[in-house]
Design goal:
Layout (H helix, E strand, L loop, with lengths): L1 H20 L6 H8 L3 H8 L2 H26 L3 H18 L1 H14 L3 H23 L13 H21 L5 H5 L8
Helix pairs in contact: 1-2, 1-4, 1-6, 2-3, 3-4, 4-5, 4-7, 5-6, 5-7, 5-8, 6-7, 7-8
């Protein structure tokens, strides 16, 4: 039990440090100091900074997918489910923009690392599958969208949401950008 709590504390501390300062600006020693553990414990459990980041990302992805699915389950119609997903993105932007900053930091690293790339691809695949399952399976699409597969539309929805999020992060003073997420509903 103590080991699990210590591992969880280390992962949570690593998440906080990386999401606050960025991966490149945080050292293993910073994380060990913040977590109140010896640096040797981090290297014993995670080998190196990439190993620790991999575990942080796995934890983040698991929690994120559970939260997204819970929001998708809230609506009774596909359009309500989409509204819930949009509201979730808007809420996360307002309450936890660090999560998105870390996600974009991780996205950048995944362009150069096969290990990180696979984790990110799995996240996207899971998100696309959730959107298909909860929103697109039973929704009447506007006629111009019927020629596309649900997977393609789910990818487009996801891309529009993440694209809007990065615009908000880059320009937090712009008040209309978060509302742009609501325009996604016009597709249905």
């Amino acid at each position: 039990m103590k080991r699990t709590n210590q591992s969880e504390r280390i992962l949570q501390t690593a998440f906080e440090c990386i999401s606050s300062k960025g991966y490149a600006s945080v050292s293993m020693r910073d994380i060990a100091d913040e977590a109140g553990v010896a640096l040797s414990q981090l290297t014993y459990h995670y080998k190196n900074k990439d190993g620790l980041l991999t575990e942080v990302i796995k934890m983040m992805i698991q929690e994120y997918l559970l939260e997204v699915e819970e929001h998708l389950k809230k609506g009774s119609t596909p359009k309500e489910k989409l509204s819930e997903l949009i509201a979730y993105f808007q809420g996360m932007l307002a309450e936890n923009p660090k999560l998105f900053k870390m996600f974009f930091d991780f996205t950048s690293m995944s362009l150069w690392s096969a290990q990180f790339s696979q984790l990110l691809q799995n996240l996207f695949d899971n998100l696309v599958n959730l959107i298909e399952k909860y929103i697109l399976n039973d929704i009447p699409l506007k006629s111009n969208l019927r020629k596309y597969s649900p997977k393609s539309i789910a990818r487009m929805l996801l891309g529009a949401m993440f694209g809007t999020v990065i615009q908000v992060i880059l320009d937090p003073q712009e008040k209309e950008i978060p509302e742009a997420l609501n325009a996604i509903e016009l597709l249905f």
